Amino acid sequence: MAPIGGTPKNKKGILERLDAGEIVIGDGGFVIALEKRGYVKAGPWTPEAALEHPEAVRQLHREFLRAGSNVLQTFTFYASDDKLENRGNYVADKHSGKKVNEAACDIAKEVAQEGDALVAGGVSQTPSYLSSKSEAEVKSIFRKQLEVFTKKNVDFLIAEYFEHVEEAVWAVETLKEAGVPVAATLCIGPEGDMHGILPGECAVKLVNAGASIVGVNCHFDPATSLKTLKLMKEGLAAAKLKAHLMSQPLAFHTPDCGKQGFIDLPEFPFALEPRILSRWDIHKYAREAYNLGVRYIGGCCGFEPYHIRAIAEELAPERGFLPQASEKHGSWGSELSMHTKPWVRARARKEYWENLLPASGRPYCPSLSKPDAWGVTKGDAELIQQKEATSEQQQKELFKRQKFKSSTVA
């Protein structure tokens, strides 16, 4: 078994690591994990917990670090000013976007000092773009977050969770103003972004905008995401462009998802648990990502620390060490050899867990769902956002629309 923990050393930058061929392990999902723990509200999914419950954010960062993460992303997902005041959200008025972003940076930097981890400041898609605001207006939103990241001296920047490559390009162009490396990930599948731009072309646009690392995050499971990354890789090769590849998919099985991803599933967001990937699924994902040439490997929604540990354990031979969290976790269940029951002791081997097909325990449940598939995107009247809370009448109209769609979608 590889030694636990890596040798402490001066921290190298993200591009130094990737250029040297090192494997960089990202962290996991924050909004889903903290919603389950009672610190994030589903719907807005905004990160005010960095101010209201800093101990919860700090502990989750610490657990990802202990599990093997080399990068701690600031908990600034959906932390743009327009999102913090969208549809009745109180955060902009009560706290301000600046304070949320500052607190998130401080917590991530504090925990990163406990290990060999880099801090990445992150921005994501905005209500302003979905409402068809101008490029200048959208970039001004990103720039407010960038001012905080610059002040807090984060190690690099990530533009993540973009359904439209156009907005992601605007984000990359804005983040490049800071003079530090920029990564960009889209929440798209093999069909491309919501305006039909295919993954290969998306990757080319992102690199031409200045991104040094490109890839996908969220919305789809590892199998689908790696198909998308393969198309991105092929697109970059055809254009004779070079960039490092980055993968941070869901920890949910989503073979039935359409173009919009898991937010279309009727189980989103409160009944996704039957779809959770096992740690052994993550071993397979990590190996397949590595074989594809991906060197920045992490996760998004659904990824808990034990999933990140599985990435670190699968790639321990290449990295030369195991994470601290492996002190209590034997290779492929080897610790089960200490169990009192002989049939459980018999499971202390790789062949057992590698070939297991887990049962759901839900005899009346279908294996797949019928996604909502409304098919709306930026430019559609239904996606125009508002500061006021959603009214009861608006909700009634949505219920009627949903019932109609459910009865007509094949």
Automatic annotation (TrEMBL):
Binding site for Zn(2+): C218, C300, C301
Matching SUPFAM superfamilies: Homocysteine S-methyltransferase
Occurrences of domain Hcy-binding (ranges): 12-315
Record InterPro entries: BHMT, BHMT-like, HCY_dom, HCY_dom_sf
UniProt superkingdom: Eukaryota
MF-aspect GO terms: betaine-homocysteine S-methyltransferase activity; zinc ion binding
Protein name (Swiss-Prot/TrEMBL): Betaine--homocysteine S-methyltransferase 1
Gene: LOC114606168
